[in-house]
Amino acid sequence: MFGVGLPEMAVIAFIAVLVFGPDKLHELAKQAGGMIRKARSLAHSARDELRSELGPEYADLELRDLDPRAIVRKHIAEAMEDADQAAAKPNRRGQRPLDEGEIPPYDADAT
To answer: 51: exposed, middle or buried (C-beta count within 10 Å: 0-12, 13-18, 19+)?
Structure first.
């Protein structure tokens, strides 16, 4: 969680006990939990309101989908996939790649 491990959490808890005292620490933890719960409910209500305003085609919308970096990554991945599929197909009907050791056709009149 946020790159904070067990030793760091222990140090933070120890400092909190020293600064606030053991009798107030319980109340502060309760308030912090309430604030986190409230922030989570606000985020969920904003997501639900956005979904309802945008209509049924965005029913599976998540707020992280609106991250510009994620959108760019998605479009680049789709473009690369399309390019790979286009490269795998022969360009013209009836043409195929040469087998190993096969000599390409030669037309003396065309040159």
So the answer is: middle
Determine how many CB atoms are found less than 10 A away from the CB of residue 2.
4
- The contacts of residue 64 (CB under 8 Å, 6+ apart) are 70
Classified as helix, coil or strand, 40 is: helix
Give SS3 for 101: coil
Q: Dump pLDDT digits (tens) for 1-50.
A: 567 788 898 898 888 888 888 888 888 889 989 999 999 999 889 888 88
SS3 38: helix
From its phi and psi, is residue 21 left (phi > 0), alpha (psi between -120 and 50) or beta? left
* Residues in Cβ contact with 52 at an 8 Å cutoff, skipping those fewer than 6 apart: none
pTM: 0.46
Q: What gap in Å lies between CA 28 and CA 34, rounded to an integer? A: 10
